[in-house]
Please model this.
Amino acid sequence: MQFELRALADGTGVLPVFTEQELLVEQLGEWQPWEKMPVLELLIQISHAQVRVVVNPVVQEDAERWTADRVAAWRRENS
Model:
């Protein structure tokens, strides 16, 4: 499993976590890769990284977002 951190305004890296798929798409776009998992599993996965988690964040308008081309390139590189 890979996690994508997002930067807060102060540059702090955080893991955005959304309670509903619609909120994720609203904030990060329709091409954002995502995985649904139980909260306990998420905590186990990130426990060693000591990463701050932000639930249902509002993402800046100019934040980088995934595109169909970027997803396709990532799949080619990681297959």
Q: What stands out?
A: The beta strands are 6-7, 13-17, 52-55.
